[in-house]
Specification:
The chain is an alpha/beta fold and about 220 residues long. About 40% of the residues lie in helices and about 15% in strands. It has an eight-stranded mixed sheet with strand order 3-2-1-4-5-6-7-8, sandwiched between helices.
Amino acid sequence: MTEKPTVAILGGTGKEGPGLAMRWANAGYTIIIGSRQAEKAEATATELNELLGIDTITGLANDDAARAADISVLTVVATAHQPALKGLVDALQGKILVDATARVDFRDPKPPTAPSAGEIAQEILGEGVKVVAAFQNVPAHALRKLDEPVSSEVLVCADDVEAAEQVMKLAEDGGMKSYYAGTLPNALTVEGLTAILISLNKYYKKKTASIGITGL
């Protein structure tokens, strides 16, 4: 049996990061919560360990978390996307970065303009990092409900198909169906779907609008 990779969730103290951490830790992955402040990351890690009754989640500053992990998942707010990436260039070389950024304003949801967040990340990080765009459409509150499957299916975009397949395995181990949806330019459309889901939720007064794929 292949050993599971260590996963760092960078900006992992926000809305989406802790839920992903819980699901992957519950599936047997070693998880590192990353934050700009190590103390904040440590506090979130302690909280999640207590909730799950485990001790496999640790907290570090983002740079240290990225260096210690095999796969890093960036879950920062859109305004922090480029600053966070620029501070992580050296730490991420030779690794996979999963970019979960959807550059959509909840107050006025509209599709973002090209290039995709994943393409921006690849440009900043360079060829030494394999960027995969995924998890932009997964409702944060659904991730914490470990006894329920996540109804939102994950569209995974990457120029490197092998890296995409590793992230698809992560998604599936976290209780989510996933599909390879093409190269990084396609991730722009996936980001735009977030605007549609927010609009649906607002109109129908729900929090659970999600993506589903049929016919495959």
